[in-house]
Design goal:
This protein is of the alpha+beta class. It is 18% helix and 33% strand. The protein starts with 6 loop residues before the first helix and ends in a 22-residue tail after the last strand. The N terminus and C terminus are likely disordered.
Length: 447
């Protein structure tokens, strides 16, 4: 039996940063992304030639770098971002996965999608307009999704003569607002995406600013990929029973460790059944190891022949999550059809999918001022609200604040498999206004 490199040593070589851009319409998100890709030499020659050709046909002398991300025909025609555009690039210091998200209010669900896995969000503000409602909305979404780092990029500084007081006032207002939402770290950077000031290269027009450029900050922000300190969680994806002559009695439970560390000899509990056992062995890439950690894909073997199947969760016995059939959560509704009280749904949590019913929608969040609209009765596309869901079978959920992986879930339409809402278990950043639950129950799905 072998022991692989220790978690801290392996994770120290990890240089991947997932980040998302957001902001109001025409704040210059796509131009910033295009400038970032262009100036960091992350654009292929044929891509740049295509952008230059499209820009010339529009009568533009300089290439419109926004076209590097606005790939849909409707986006190019309207000059807006509609869908989430993912871009992959790298520098000698770090690799990046970038999600360029839309700025329109009606595409809030797209911003939620792009930022759901982000470790950093870049929120753009037009220096001429300052903090607007959509700026506050995107800051609130970042706070709801527990994005640990937020960068305020005050763009178009060239249009306000690179004035320091303008930047300082915007940075002060945004920082106070984001901090009130619980955003742990806010960094403000004055930029001009069109001219390239403080994006990749330092600006010669803003000697009063001594901080990093956008790329410097992205390369150096301390992002922790170390999930080994989190509650250990192992959602079972597949049960392996070869039943071959050489593996006649082999029974292993395969999946990806969502968080934490698992060790041979450790007492564990299988949820939701609550049955206990001990880890007899861990198989990784064909070898037996003594220890494994997130996000490795492994097969765990137990000393006892307990009933374990896909959708079960294996956790340390002294740190197992509570199981529940009453899920209280914040959801962002992403479907065009509304989510209503009494609606039958499926809830997908890690590898487990169970039937459920929406028992209550206590409130809908108004992101403009963070007020709660009580008892809305339904949530429509792009709405964010509190829900209470009753499940047919128990789920082992963590609070989203403790684990973005095991505290999140999807609500799915059982009729056609459409994703209805993305959910975050536990409390949101704002006080929840509870409304009385409806008196009448659905007989068939009243669990």
């Amino acid at each position: 039996m072998t022991t692989p490199t220790q978690p801290a040593e392996q994770l120290s070589t990890t240089t991947l940063l997932r980040f998302a851009t957001a902001g109001s319409v025409d704040d210059g998100k796509s131009t910033l992304v295009g400038r970032l890709l262009h100036d960091s030499k992350s654009v292929l020659t044929d891509q740049l030639e295509a952008v230059e050709d499209a820009s010339r046909k529009r009568g533009q002398e300089a290439p419109d770098l926004a076209l590097l991300t606005d790939g849909l025909r409707a986006e190019r025609e309207q000059g807006i971002t509609i869908d989430v555009a993912y871009r992959y690039f790298a520098t000698p210091r770090r690799r990046f996965i970038l999600a360029d998200t839309p700025g329109h209010v009606q595409y809030t669900r797209n911003m939620v999608t792009g930022a759901s896995t982000a470790e950093l969000a870049v929120v753009l503000v037009d220096a001429r307009n300052g903090v607007v409602e959509q700026t506050r909305r995107h800051a609130a979404v970042a706070a709801l999704l527990r994005v640990p780092h937020v960068v305020l990029a005050v763009n178009k500084m060239d249009l306000v003569d690179y004035a320091e007081p303008v930047f300082a006032a915007i940075a002060k207002e945004f920082t106070a607002y984001a901090a009130s939402l619980g955003v742990p770290e806010i960094t403000a950077i004055p930029i001009s995406a069109l001219a390239g000031d403080n994006v990749v290269e330092p600006s010669s027009h803003m000697d009063w600013y001594g901080g990093p450029t956008v790329l410097e900050h992205l390369e150096t922000v301390p992002v922790s990929h170390d999930l080994t300190g989190c509650h250990a969680r192992f959602p079972v994806q597949y049960v392996i029973r070869p039943q071959t002559p050489e593996h006649r009695d082999y029974r292993g439970y395969a999946g990806q460790i969502a968080a934490g560390v698992f060790r041979v000899g450790e007492p564990v509990t299988v949820l939701p059944s609550g049955r206990t056992s001990t880890i007899a062995g861990i198989d990784l890439l064909g070898d037996s190891v003594d220890i494994a950690w997130a996000p490795q894909s492994v097969t765990i073997r137990l000393t006892d022949d307990v009933d374990v199947s896909r959708g079960d969760l294996i956790a340390p016995s002294d740190d197992a999550p509570a199981v529940t059939q009453d899920v209280e959560a914040t959801v962002c509704h992403v479907a065009d059809r509304p989510l209503t009280v009494g609606q039958r749904v499926l809830i997908k949590h890690t590898t487990r999918t169970v039937k459920a019913i929406v028992k209550d929608i206590p409130s809908r969040l108004t992101l403009d001022d963070l007020s709660q609209h009580p008892a809305p009765g339904q949530l429509v596309a792009n709405d964010i609200g509190r829900v209470v869901v009753r499940t047919a079978e128990p789920l082992a959920l963590d609070a989203y604040a403790d684990s973005r992986r095991t505290g999140s879930f999807l609500l799915i339409d059982p009729a056609d498999g459409t994703t209805l809402s993305a959910g975050m278990a536990g409390a949101s950043f704002a006080a929840v206004v509870r409304a009385a639950a409806p008196a009448d129950d659905e007989a068939e799905w009243d669990f």
